[in-house]
Amino acid sequence: MSSVGHLGEIVIDVSAPDVDHLVGFWCSLLGVTVDARDAEWIDLTPQHPDAPHLSFQVVPEPKAVKNRVHLDVYVDELGRATEAAEALGATLLGDAVQEEDSRFQVLADPAGNEVCLVEWST
Fold this sequence. Notes:
Number of helices: 2
Distance between the termini: 31 Å
Oligomer: single chain
CATH class of the largest domain: Alpha Beta
Radius of gyration: 15 Å
CATH superfamily of the largest domain: 2,3-Dihydroxybiphenyl 1,2-Dioxygenase, domain 1
CATH architecture of the largest domain: Roll
Strand content: 35-45%
Shape: globular
Helix content: 10-25%
CATH topology of the largest domain: 2,3-Dihydroxybiphenyl 1,2-Dioxygenase, domain 1
């Protein structure tokens, strides 16, 4: 089956007062830097050349709605990664969940966007 296109960018809308804190959180969590920035857009460097890049679009109004999409961040050790994410400003949203082939922890980033830290079984 052919595709219509490929995933090139993941965009998170953020209101102006939260921009620097939120961008700093994601840069530290993913180990990346800001690639480009202007008054309306902040683009992070991709983790590798084929990866979609993460961008933030500055919007004038804050949003407070249930997340319909979240990002999964794959980690080597869930406990250490969870502690590190909390130290960066993430908030735990419940207990870690054990599945057949993975464990994951749901957190909220400083703006309230959900993110899952996922440790796969080896």
